[in-house]
Hints:
Largest sheet: none
Structural class: mainly alpha
Number of helices: 8
Order of helices and strands: HHHHHHHH
Number of strands: 0
Amino acid sequence: MSHGAAVFLFTSSLFVGMLLFLEIGRRLGFRRWQDDSSDAAEGIGAVDGAVFAVLGLLIAFTFSGATARFDARRQLIVEETNNIGTAYLRLDVLPADFQPPLRESFRRYLDSRIETYRKIPDLAAVRESRARGNQLQREIWRQAVDAVQADGAALAAPLLLLPALNAMIDIATTRTMAAQLHPPRAVFAMLFGLALAASFLAGYGMTGSKVRSRLHMLGFALVMAIAVFVILDIEYPRLGWIRVDAFDQALVDLRESMSRDVPAPEPK
Length: 268
């Protein structure tokens, strides 16, 4: 099942479940309403307030966490672009004979990095592209170490190039782990359960009127379902409607700038 289908199924189930629990709570409350005293009603109101407060806090924290991770993932794209671009520029400190093969390796590596995130949600293709990128990292590192130790290399070459390469490699791992960083599923299960419990209590509290307010019931369930849908969509920004793909253009622009560095073939 695709991510979009899973999110839609989750939020649709929440919407239907909340309507069901609203109706169950209303019917149960209506049966017992005649026997409830004002003191009992006040006690029930306190319980209702506590449950709704916990639900509100949980929604606020999950939404805040999702948006924070969304912003962090966008920032990591910019950071990786800067790191690759810095390392690429510092190839100028190497002897001229070592620069062309390293620049070509950089171009292939950047192609691999762009391709890795374009392959989502095909996990098999993503793993293959990531493995190819890791291999290119090792190849670039070996080429760079050989180049900074070669005759004619500037004394500052190891200090300038190798730390930049290390940062370029590290940020790739950081992005991989950041893409897998999500709240435990128990958090979403708790959110689902609390929403149903709040629906039951809300329905129970609607027994003051004999007329069923379908507008309020539908509105309450719809608002909750939309809020959960948005949280899940932000939490997985490569799979839903709210995406970070636009920031990948920074890597594409860097790749285009590298292509302009390729020398034109000499006329025969």
